[in-house]
Amino acid sequence: MTTYDIHIKGGTIVDGTRVPRYKGDMWVKDGRIAKIGGRPNGTSERVIDADGLIVAPGFVDLHTHYDAQIRWDPWCTISGWHGVTSVVLGNCGFGFAPVRPEFRERSILTMVRTEAIPYTAMKEGMAWDWETIPEYLDSLERAPKGVNCIQYMPTASLMIYVMGLEAAKTRPATPQERKEMQRLLHEGMDAGLCGFSIQRLGPDSVQADFDGSPMVTDTMCDDDILALAEVLAERDEGFIQITQGTGDIRADLAFLEKLAKTAQRPILHNVVAPSRQDPEVHRRPLRWIQKCWDQGLPIYAQCGTGRSGFAFTLEHWNLYDASPAWRAVTVGTNEEKMAKMRDPELRRALVAEAAEADRRLQVIQAGVGGNPKSLVIQGVNRQADMQKYVGRSVGDIAMEEGKHPIEIMLDLSLQGNLNVEFLGPDKGSNADFMAEMLNDSPYTLPGVSDGGAHTKFFTGGAYTTDLLRWLVRDEGKITLEEAHYRLSALTAHAAGFRDRGVLREGAAADVVVYDMEELDVDPTWIGDVVHDLPGGEWRRVQRAKGYKDILVNGEVTFEDGVCTGAQPGRLLRHGRG
């Protein structure tokens, strides 16, 4: 008679393959699904009563920046609270390996601005014991983990390691440097990497370096990228994640097609998101992706499906960096920022740029944070003389005081010592467009949580729960089966995870058990502030409701929203493990 570790009893199984849901039991042993359906043929050490609950594969979060946080938070929350059991590390070309010991501090500073991860948290929370990619992967494998992870080569780190920072920012690689980068990518792939990643957003990148200059890959030349793609083609393995948007849409798309032809491997293209009113915003890129597949070019669209809001102060804000004027004002120490905000010439430049801003900048500002005039004052650093502004929009205050909205943002921030908090408006989301984006294309992946990044003003890690409660339960626009296929099976397949994302006998037991009627995000719009990062640093969080149990490799990591302390996660070298 078999003794199982866990018996999940009487649940409604949605296995991730689009097979219609069915009621049945599931048994787990030694980290894998041992049996689905039928009568018990043995005993179980633990029984999870799933009557009336959904039993589904754990979610796969493709776009995260938990590279630092996983070192102090094995469960990669926020994502881990919301049913995510596997994550991708090393996105956008950013990470911490390979890195020479003398560059560690600068590597941390890079992530302070481009991904807005607190310096103190990284400084105190990361114990460096690597230089090369193989050493880094060994270290990551040793680290306690509550989720599974795969790692892409952070191309910015690779370029700096080979070329040095100044050269990597100012010129293409030499033939010798290019060969060395190829060699190191081969070495990393041999050790277990699953591909490489790049952010290429041009000289006015929306995510700049800590000094305001573009990130290394933002201005990377085509040939250097294609040289790395040749490595994947030679090996016939690996995946590419790329965030591309230099401002020339035709050139960007043409390059992505060339990249796909060179690599002959799947590409995760960031990011496709629907607008509230114009369906062409998402239909146009999806038509292009279908054309690519028709030509045999495997390009997937990573879609922005989260609805989390933004709340930020000008002490930490970096997501207006596509604007040269905003970037100039918000780079530096707090004292330097405040001095620049008082500078009449810089203030005039901000206002002038807002009046002349091209459509790209307007779209970026609307999408991340909000147009300055529509922002609402949420907090004023507890200053009594500023309470009259709380709850009012920047635009209203500007009209009353006869100033430009940007001048009001600067004046209030200065008065509040940079701690005046601006709340991005809830612009609403179009459920029909969001559902169309996911239902009508075979190549769309939900998510772009940015988990672990922008921690003081954004909580995208709740997208999994939000998609199920909103588009499946409340709106009825996506079937339960389709949602779980997109959240788990397709995402696992597209990014290089093997044996994850579906419930089948023999598969890894990454499982979520939840109550669909109770599923919720708490709080709904803007996250709560908690001081739970190393060094007492704070972040915003949205917790999950409705998950009875979350299992990773057959062990319960969260029970009724409470962490069990179990750390069964694994580094999946080559996507396996």
Précis, in short:
The chain has 577 residues and is α/β, with parallel strands linked by helices.
Give an overview of the whole structure.
The structure is a single chain. This protein folds into two domains: about 400 residues, TIM Barrel, CATH 3.20.20; about 100 residues, no CATH class. Helices cover about 35% and strands about 20% of the residues. Helix 4 crosses helix 6, helix 6 packs parallel to helix 7 and helix 7 packs parallel to helix 8. It has 18 helices and 25 strands. It starts with a strand and ends in a 14-residue tail after the last strand.
Question: How are the SSEs placed, and which strands pair?
Answer:
Elements: E1 2-13, E2 22-29, E3 32-36, E4 42-49, E5 54-57, E6 59-61, E7 84-89, H1 104-114, H2 119-125, H3 133-142, E8 148-151, E9 153-154, H4 155-163, H5 165-170, H6 175-191, E10 195-200, H7 222-235, E11 239-244, H8 249-263, E12 267-272, H9 280-294, E13 299-304, E14 311-312, H10 324-330, H11 334-342, H12 344-356, H13 359-367, E15 376-380, H14 394-401, H15 405-415, E16 420-423, H16 431-439, E17 444-447, H17 463-474, H18 480-495, E18 511-514, E19 520-522, E20 528-530, E21 539-541, E22 543-545, E23 547-552, E24 555-559, E25 562-563
Parallel strand pairs: 1-4, 1-5, 6-7, 7-8, 9-10, 10-11, 11-12, 12-13, 13-17
Antiparallel strand pairs: 1-2, 2-3, 5-18, 14-16, 15-16, 18-23, 19-22, 20-21, 23-24, 24-25
